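Operator note (shift B, R.M.): manual run for YtoQ family protein requested after the automated queue skipped it. Running by hand, logging everything below so the morning shift can see what happened. Input copied straight from the record, untouched. If output looks odd, do not overwrite the archive copy; leave it for review.
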Amino acid sequence: MSFYVYLSGEIHTDWRDEIQRGADAASLDIVFTAPVTDHDASDAAGDHLGVPENGFWRDHQSSKVNAIRTRTLIEQADLVVVRFGDKYKQWNAAFDAGYCSALAKPYITLHAEDIVHPLKEVDAGAQAWCTTTEQVVETLKYVLKA
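Run finished. Output pasted below as returned.
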């Protein structure tokens, strides 16, 4: 079986690389996709349309341009992994999980136990909650090779 997996969420650690290395080591047939992970580039995604005077409108404009990629890749994915890190609040990751839920798209959450309570609704919609990238890889192995 072949899978498309979208890796959503936190952009400040190498968790995506860890999952990809684990999937490669297990010879899983997976195409991984992700949002733009260069924070400055993402913030400037709409600047070519003209930089508004107000920061709200700059963010609004760039989020719409970023959404072209995000929505398309989530819709094409067979599964989405949504990572919530501990350094920043990833509201966009929660939005991605909600979008998956609205589409009936299966998703896995990846986060530490200390944020279970604030993510209870997000986790309730997930097919699995993982605390490590190794658990994500094991879940992918089961789904693809069982």
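Quick read of the result: Residues 55-76 form the longest helix (22 residues). The beta strands are 2-9, 29-33, 79-83, 107-110, 128-130.
Leaving this for review. - R.M.
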